[in-house]
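Re: your question about 60S ribosomal protein L10A

S., sorry for the slow reply, the queue was backed up all week. Below is exactly what I fed in.
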Amino acid sequence: MSKLQSDALREAISGIMGDSKEKNRNFVETIELQIGLKNYDPQKDKRFSGSVKLPHIPRPKMKICMLGDAQHVEEAEKIGLDYMDVEA
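Result:
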């Protein structure tokens, strides 16, 4: 059972998003959320994994360069990323 209700979390995030629209800033603002799990040892228990698709691009101007071997270079070419070969 969660001590933090999802409705309260959504309301807090909506408030933060509303405040950010009032005063425009010249940088990308972020929201960080820390979660503490009781009786969980991250060194011993490696059972949490997953990904979440964000509704918005977090950094629209971010450039990525893939550094890898021949297989990674080929994958980067297919998806249009800049790349560098470690063997070159």
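The mean pLDDT is 79. The chain has one domain: 6-85.

Happy to talk it through on Thursday.
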